[in-house]
Amino acid sequence: MDAQKPLLRIERVSKSYGEVTALRELSLDIAANEFFALLGPSGCGKTTLMRLIAGLEKPDAGRILLDSVDITHLPPHLRPVNMMFQSYALFPHMSVAKNIGFGLVQENLPRKEIATRVADMLGLVQMEGLGERRPDQLSGGQRQRVALARALVKRPKLLLLDEPLAALDRKLRHETQFQLMAAQRDTGTSFVVVTHDQDEAMVMAHRMAVMHAGVIEQIGTPRQVYEEPVSRHVAGFVGETNFFDGRVTHFMPGGVEVQTHSGLALEAGCREHPALGTRVVVSIRPENLRLGPPSQLVTNGAPGEITDHVFREGMSSWRVRLDGGDIVHVRQPIAAGTATYDRGARVFVAFAPECARALVR
Amino acid sequence: MRPLRRLVLAIPALWLFAFFLAPFALVAKISVSRPLVAQPPYEPVFSLADGWQGLWDKLSRLTLDAYALVFSDDLYLDAYLSSLRLAAIATLLTLLIGFPLAHAMTRAPRQWRTALVLLAIAPFWTSFLIRIYAWIMILKDEGLLNHALLSLGLIHAPLSIFATEAAVLIGIVYSYLPFMVLPLYTALEKQDPALLEAAADLGATPLRAFWRITCPLAWPGIFAGLLLVFIPAVGEFVIPDLLGGSDTLMIGRSLWNEFFENRDWPAASAVAIVLLAILIVPLVLHERQQVKERAA
Question: How far away is chain A from the Cα of B221, in angstroms, using its nearest Cα?
Fold first, then answer.
């Protein structure tokens, strides 16, 4: 992928709204046929970035190249990029078929071809026979599919999807994720999804960028980002985690030992080389912690007491108050023969150093 | 609950009866009476003392002469046509001015919009008559407008606008502009700006997006505005009387003349009834449109 020329290249793009900086010299490459997710909390600049790609906003500085062509100043109606709006923005006075065909009418295609391609799209989104309905006669899920069909019918090089699943209920969201992935595979279009929901990004995207305060903190596959977050912000935003603040006390191959403020000595992997005494945060995912009986004595662990126990989706979740004062979240799958601990039980919490990350930022 | 509900419904019903239906019935009755130099200036006058025979006699004296006069005299026909023409031109001008105005209002920052709406209706805080008199001062040959244009050197002789159709059009457009702007503003303000972005994203030029998205969605507002201006403009009396010339023919003036100068009340009433009949056509259209909207 890196050897190929990128489909979309964003070069040091900046954008401010008055005093507020939405994007700060941001650069990003997106490959052809890629499912890419822009992930971040609201206000991180992900929506601004998407609107810049669509041409709905102009950057203050920087360039946007599509297939090596500079499109920075091209108005939206001339860009071979289409967008699915968060509100869907279906035209309320037009039928479903007219909505889907709108983009093709603008290209002045023959009526027959428009009809064929609209019918194909209705098939792709499983809406055959509903072409004459009005948007207000459709369910939320159907409206979402019309919006997708309308954006895909022009066969864009790049499809932008603004929070495509936000308006759907939980169950439908789950199904629709797989429909979007199938649509991306079948059309060979690059999809860029903007979302604040890390689950969505993790499930659908080939690669994702985690954004914070107008910059990209980390780009990688969902697994890379989850397992090797580069910053406290990324670790906290993507998936659940436990944080321990402390200072570097020793160096080890591939990692450091950290003395936490609460008095624990933790070993953790580290990609950077912080000096002794540097303030770092250790991030350990709940599933990388293990509970054991209090008698068991291990390094990289601490005794504590169970404060809560929840069972959900085949997993047991515990909250443990460590004797040093930290409260940690432990998650383990339920299997036959697994020891379980109830509220108030004394336990020992252990973790494997290779799963812990010491983060400087 | 139920008696109270009836009472609540009865109030507007009574209001409509007392101030709309009853006067309408009176005018309709006068329109089929005969003119008379007397007080009241028509006959027959019905009375409870007549008894059945008297009522029958008087009913047989009712006549359609006034309508025959209205339809046979070219003066009335010309006045109607001229009124419809002037009202139509004025309404279109109002739309041409009102649409960009309303559009700009919806694009203004949200915190300004209420103030802009207030500004649009601000002229109503001054008497209508005074505002029309003010236009005389502006438009007359030695008025403000000519004075300004002359001193700017844009013209060398005063324009004669006052006492022409142009002055009447200016007066109507000025007076009825808020009735156009307000429904347009309401219709345009409801539109989701994302719709225009979506249209642009799908390849529509700004002009195409305006014709295919903004206009059709604003149609209920456009239609309401057209009617709210056109209907009162057809029957307008004060503006043509004050700003128009002696050759400005409008039906409101003919009506006034029949009532107060010729004292031919039946003819005047017939003119009014025919005017009402003409204006019912757009009203029915409006009603149909509203029913359609509610169904949608």
Answer: 15
